[in-house]
């Protein structure tokens, strides 16, 4: 065996590899507000939707390009809400995103006729490799408060230009993307308002009915128990009479905080009406429901009240699938148990146990 290392063959003249590297866009001056506006829409990582898919389809057809994308520029990535012509791609790093450059000028379409001729993009990995971008035009998606959230962009693998009509059409479609985002945001907001109690911020009766129906179905499907607490503030009329209705309103707000504090994150608290609240306790059997009720009762009793101490009485109940009851009966039984707790002196829990 020789200790002399083998002589490597002459490598010949060196060829510099063309290294892909992106010229990163600067951050917009209003980046914090821009990201806040984007997050307000709650659109990131949502499933595909026909209305957005339709817009990219129309954009690709109008501009006669193989690729069109609705892309939203998140903190470290651009995420695609809708895409034509890029199978399976849902996001790329922000560092290589053309759109990260486009959002710097919210009032203009960024048009790159030939990426290989543009020092910002000539060595971009999306140009030198898949999807081999040569032409790019991105119309910023500008929210009503002036934040550029991302772009509607059209892309080709050959150099080209947009005609003035195509530019106008692309800008119009970008406005339609924002209109769709606004519409969805408004609907979500309205839906939240219609299920929230204005005074306390707790879920309202409508939300309770919906959640009880959903939890009841789950309870029947998984054959897991379902607990329910009916909670009523004690002597609240006296409190109102003594301190006035507005102070009573403040106390109801404080009560909701006390009621929520011992509940688990998947429990559901709603204002049933007036000074009565209801909590749905998924998977809680009779023992779990009465223990949770006692924790809730104690939390209210232990609250540092602003005006005068308040207590609650609680009717607790838990359904097992073999009980063969319906959700209305569950609520009625919790109400009966609450009545018993009131009769027994208030500031206490009564567990409903007898089904037959
Ligand atoms: N401030 C305020 N009071 C409310 C609200 N909703 C219901 N109430 C009051 O809650 C009181 C309920 O009175 P009652 O049903 O007699 O019950 P209670 O005085 O709590 O007596 P028990 O339940 O038997 O302990 C009434 O005075 C209602 O006006 C509200 O939104 N704000």
Considering the chains and any ligands shown, give keywords for the structure:
single chain, 356 residues, alpha+beta, Beta-Lactamase, Alpha-Beta Plaits, six-stranded antiparallel sheet, five-stranded mixed sheet, 10 helices, 39% helix, elongated, disordered N terminus, binds guanosine-5'-triphosphate
Short overview:
With 356 residues, the chain is of the alpha+beta class.
Task: Kindly report the spatial arrangement of strands forming the biggest sheet.
Answer: 3-2-1-6-5-4
Question: Can you identify the CATH class of the largest domain?
Answer: Alpha Beta
Report Rg.
Answer: 31 Å
Largest sheet, strands/sense/barrel: 6 strands, antiparallel
Number of domains: 2
Bound molecules: guanosine-5'-triphosphate
CATH topology of the largest domain: Beta-Lactamase
Strands, total number: 11
Helicity, as a percent range: 25-40%
Q: Can you describe what's shown?
A:
This is Histidine kinase. Keywords: Kinase, Transferase. GO terms for molecular function: kinase activity. This protein has 356 residues and is of the alpha+beta class. It folds into two domains: 31-193, 2-Layer Sandwich (Beta-Lactamase); 205-351, Alpha-Beta Plaits (2-Layer Sandwich), CATH 3.30.70.270. It is built from ten helices and eleven strands. The chain has helices spanning 31-40, 50-63, 98-102, 125-128, 164-194, 205-222, 236-243, 245-260, 286-301, 327-343, and strands at residues 67-73, 77-84, 91-93, 110-112, 135-142, 148-156, 226-233, 268-273, 276-282, 312-319, 349-351. The strands form two sheets. The chain has a six-stranded antiparallel β-sheet with strand order 3-2-1-6-5-4. It has a five-stranded mixed β-sheet with strand order 8-9-7-10-11, with helices on both faces. Helix 2 runs antiparallel to helix 5 (164-194), helix 7 crosses helix 8 and helix 8 (245-260) packs across helix 9 (286-301). The longest helix has 31 residues, at 164-194. It is elongated and about 85 Å long. The N and C termini lie far apart (94 Å). The model is unreliable at 1-17 (pLDDT under 50).
